[in-house]
Design goal:
10 copies of one chain form a homodecamer. Chain A is an alpha+beta fold. The first copy, chain A, has helices at residues 52-60, 69-84, and strands spanning 5-7, 16-27, 34-44, 48-50, 88-95, 102-110. In chain A, the strands form 2 sheets. A 4-stranded antiparallel sheet of chain A has the order 2-3-5-6, covered by helices on one side. In chain A, strands 1-4 form a two-stranded antiparallel sheet.
Chain lengths: 122, 122, 122, 122, 122, 122, 122, 122, 122, 122
């Protein structure tokens, strides 16, 4: 499943783009039971933005894959970094309770070299 | 649609003005479907404040225009910067779900040169 | 309408006093329609605190006055600064929707010279 | 009414203890009417922690005393400082509306000399 | 009860793992009455992550033990530090009301030496 | 202040019309203090519906009148009955706290003779 | 403490009057500890309505009395019935947790003989 | 704009189908200003169910039409009755505030003749 | 564990007593894992009321017993019926999620013979 | 996927059992896109109760099946009726928004012949 991109309409400005996908589901590799959660992606684009429909299909590609919370969060982050080369990006996954426990994983990455001077940005 | 302004009643003080417009709607240029969202504008005025009725009409002018989330957010920001020349300003757009995903775009701009010394402001 | 004061019982300590008045009403000078909002006052007293009953009557004195959001917020701030000479003070006004838009105005002022050393404060 | 204490089980670590007492009541010295509020106490212990039952009885001792918002908040803070000698402590009182206004008082105090190095604390 | 661990899948990245366990119960050593609360654990792993099922069983091992709020919070923190050697970790316990009072305890610990340079992390 | 009306577009159907006005204010005749509340009007029209702008102006006409909770609620009901002759109508007033107490008044009236047979209504 | 009354302004109409007093406090006769709760009174007046200030003072008269939940609820109901002779009345008390349990008591009484025909009432 | 239908998969059972469309917008015929609201449709199908995509397009067809609250609610009801011939149906419209007032319109219609015996329904 | 009782202070009136115990815990007999839930008890007393402290201890007696949701709910109901002989009683248990599912069990019982005439009750 | 059952522990009493499964997912047969929703099952057992783990697995069996909202709701109801022969049962499905619309389907069935006399039930 391929993440498609489009040109950032204001590359000269650092601004924030956030997408929340509350309908994420994958499978626990240990028990074979489905996991359910919300994926929050927040980034500052450099030259490219992620196209929403391809992002939805990308997230759906985990539907029947067995993968742990920590791994899927870092994998989504790595794939978005590879596709977008953003100035900075954070991926959060918020999971519904398993065994009475709710889990959250938060990973982020910044590319300072791609960060623009803040003279007229934030 | 023209943004009208009035004189800032306390230009000697840095203070915050925020307007939230939860009834924003435009059209997705790709699918032709209507988009719905909330626009939040927060700024520190320099010499001019935006007149509320003209702001409402300005936002209504997007009702039947096809424009992407990222572009409309930056466009509103650029238009307000051009009309008000504020000390700083931020525009946020919060969109209702499309394809199960909620999106938020946040852009801001500051004019440090217009910023007053903080001796008696914040 | 006069703001009455009483002696700060702990002038040697920087501490925060906040009063929220959710029943504020004034009149829009342009349309003659009533405006409704909440006024939040937060300050660090120097020698004087504002007496609550006189504050209530002071805020009621706007009931039938025509005045804009930006002006009334700054006017309340100026009047409290004149009456209390506080170490710092912030006035927020949160307005109910007009034309589908909710507005918030936030103004503050500090008197660094009156600020005590923080050796035993925060 | 005496505040009792017990030995801090981890004096080598700076950690936060918070107690919220939503059932506080005292009497307004001006009108004789009862006041109701929530008292929030948050502190970093040095050698001593406050025993919960004695704290409850201490707060109940204000039930029929006439005392202003600002004074009672500072008095609770002073009494806890005297009893615990904490590294830092904050007392907040949140009051139910009187005359349509909600009030909050926040006072805090720190003893930097008692603060431990942060090599293995926060 | 032993805390089991697994290898951190991205040790080269500082990222946050949070587990909330709202079904914690222990016993008050003074009154013999059960206490109920929520335990929140948030950490940045170094080489090891805690396995969720063993964490659940570990927390259940307090079910019939008499232990104070302050002690149990620090004990959980110490046990997790011993098992995981995390880069940093925080343990919060949020307790249901006793005698009309709600309590919260927050303890944390950092191992700066294990902290990675932030060149490509947060 | 006169309540204006327009023709009910579906007099052959019993259907419900509700208007909530959260910005109602009048004056307490005993203390001279302003009262604030929400007025909820719900009715089944017969031949006439109330015009919204005239309803707003009608409610504003109480702004500086001294009148008790019970009286104002029944007065609004009587005035709407006189103007609309509805099949049934209910007026509720929900008041912000005075002396720590929140009050609600609910009055209604029905004209069974004007009620249509329910063969094709509810 | 005496409950004062005033003439019902619309005795010819059955309508509902509700007062919620969230600041009620009495004392547990067994433990001597204070109890806190909300008293909700809802009635249809016959000839008399209860005057709000005397109701407030009446409820305050329980502040230092030892009385059980069930007894205080029925006592308030009996006293209001004696003072108002209402067409119907309900008293609810909602108590904050004691020993981890929240209690609610609901008592009501109707005087069918005083109930008016419903030809033009509800 | 045409409402499309499909065969009811269980015509032998009375069951409830509800669709909530929170993104409805039309135009006020008096002021030319846009109105925003939520349309709730709840029905018991007889032989036909409404197809969701055509329902969405049907509701979008009001986007630039001038029509009053009462009229649009009854029109949607009439159009759905004509297209579906349901056993019973209710249409509610919940509108965002105009002039400080929130409005709700609720209309419904039943066809008792089409109602099945309740031997094995509720 | 014995349920203690006291005399109903108003046996001549049908009134409602409700106790909510949000800190209930028992053990799943199949998995050995702890279950957590809220028990709601609502009854109309005949001659006897349940004493709160003994009710708390009675509910705590399930802490380490293996018992299914359906059985524990009916058992609590049977034990309260045996101890109180109430006019009517309902027991609800609301359980935290297990395997992603939340469960609720509601059982009730009435003794019509013990029900008083409603001449002056509800 | 087979629904397993166990003996009702109190067949002589009509009582309510409710299970809410907020993690339901199936596939839209028209678009191939995943649907997400909550399934609520509420029934009065006759001789049999549904075993929770088998219910969870049964619901998971829809994960990759294409089926419409109306059909899946009625299918779950039919399967539970076949397995449990309950006295009465209701199945609700609450779906997350698609095309901006939220849908709910509610189906129920009763077997009056299996309903017990209410002499000692509600």
């Amino acid at each position: 499943m391929r993440l498609e991109t489009f040109e950032n309409p204001r590359p000269q400005r650092d601004y924030v783009i956030r997408h929340e996908a509350p309908e994420f589901t994958s499978v626990c590799p240990k028990t074979g039971q489905p996991d359910f959660g919300t994926v929050v992606i927040e980034y500052v684009a450099d030259r490219l933005c992620v196209e929403l429909k391809s992002l939805k299909l990308y997230l759906q590609s985990y539907r029947n894959r067995g993968i742990f919370y920590e791994a899927v969060t870092n994998q989504i982050l790595d794939d978005l970094v590879a596709a977008l080369r953003p100035r900075r990006i954070r991926v959060e996954t918020h999971w519904t309770p398993r065994g009475g426990m709710r889990s959250v994983i938060i990973a982020e990455q910044a590319h300072p070299a791609r960060r623009r001077p803040r003279s007229n940005g934030r």
